[in-house]
Structure to design on (254 residues):
C-alpha cells in the first residue's frame, strides 16, 4: 500500500512540477506540457511490447501459462499506451502543425504498431483452447516484436518528418533542455513505467482468477 | 485548468486501481 501511495504522490508531484516549476522549452511553448505525457506513453508502449515478447519467448521455452498471461497483459497495456501516445501527439500536432493527424512518418508507424498488436489481441480472441492460444499468440508476438524497433527507430529516420527529433539532448549538444524539464520528464517516465508494472500485475492476477473460475466451472460441469 | 483535470483524472485512475486490487485480493482469498 505504501508503494502505491508513493506512486500516486510521485506522479502527482511530477505533474505539479511540470506545470508550475519547470519552464517552457524554447520553440515548443505551452506544448512543452504534452511532453510529460506523450513521451512516457510512447516509452511505456515500447517497454510493454518488449515485455510481451520476452514472456512469449519464455512461454515457448517453458510452456507455463503464467508467461502467456504476462505477454497478453503487456500487449493490452501496450496498445492502451500506444493510443495515449497517439492522442497526446495529435493534440500536440494540432497546436503546432494545425492538424490533428498528418500521416507524418511517426504518426503512420504508431498506427501500424496499433494495427499489429490489435491483430495480436484479435488472434487471441479467435482461438479456442488455452494451450493452443498461448502457443500461437507467443509465436505471433515474437514475430510482431521484430517490427517494433524498425517502426519506432528506423522508419521515422528514413523519411523526412515534422516530428521534433531527439527531445533528449545528445552528448555534447549545446542546445540542451532546461534541467528542470529533464527532471520532470524523467520523473514521469519512471512513474509511468511503475504504473505499467502495477497494472500488468493486476491484469495477470485477474487472468489467473478467470482461469481458476473456468476450471472450476468445467469440473462442476464434468461431475454433473 | 489542464493541470486540475490531469490531477483529477490521475486521482480517479488511482482510486479505481486500488479498488480493483482490493477486489482481486478478496477473490484470491476465496
Amino acid at each position: 500500500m505504501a508503494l502505491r501511495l508513493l506512486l500516486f504522490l510521485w506522479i502527482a508531484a511530477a505533474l505539479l512540477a511540470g506545470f508550475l516549476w519547470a519552464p517552457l522549452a524554447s520553440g515548443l511553448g505551452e506544448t512543452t506540457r504534452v511532453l510529460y505525457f506523450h513521451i512516457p506513453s510512447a516509452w511505456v508502449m515500447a517497454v510493454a511490447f518488449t515485455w510481451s515478447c520476452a514472456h512469449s519467448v519464455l512461454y515457448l521455452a517453458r510452456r507455463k501459462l503464467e508467461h502467456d498471461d504476462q505477454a497478453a497483459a503487456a500487449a493490452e497495456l501496450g496498445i492502451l499506451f500506444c493510443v495515449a501516445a497517439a492522442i497526446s501527439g495529435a493534440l500536440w500536432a494540432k497546436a503546432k502543425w494545425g492538424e490533428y493527424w498528418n500521416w507524418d512518418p511517426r504518426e503512420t508507424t504508431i498506427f501500424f504498431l496499433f494495427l499489429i498488436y490489435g491483430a495480436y489481441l484479435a488472434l487471441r480472441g479467435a482461438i479456442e483452447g488455452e494451450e493452443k492460444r498461448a502457443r500461437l499468440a507467443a509465436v505471433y508476438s515474437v514475430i510482431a516484436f521484430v517490427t517494433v524497433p524498425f517502426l519506432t527507430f528506423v522508419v521515422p529516420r528514413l523519411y523526412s518528418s515534422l516530428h521534433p527529433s531527439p527531445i533528449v539532448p545528445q552528448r555534447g549538444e549545446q542546445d540542451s533542455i532546461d534541467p528542470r524539464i529533464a527532471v520532470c520528464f524523467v520523473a514521469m517516465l519512471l512513474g509511468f513505467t511503475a504504473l505499467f508494472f502495477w497494472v500488468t500485475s493486476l491484469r495477470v492476477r485477474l487472468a489467473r482468477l478467470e482461469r481458476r473460475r473456468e476450471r472450476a466451472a468445467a469440473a462442476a460441469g464434468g461431475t454433473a | 485548468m489542464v493541470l486540475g483535470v490531469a490531477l483529477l483524472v490521475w486521482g480517479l485512475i488511482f482510486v479505481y486501481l486500488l479498488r480493483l486490487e482490493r477486489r482481486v485480493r478478496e477473490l484470491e482469498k476465496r
Observations:
- The radius of gyration of chain B is 13 Å.
- Helices of chain B lie at 2-29.
- The mean pLDDT of chain B is 93.
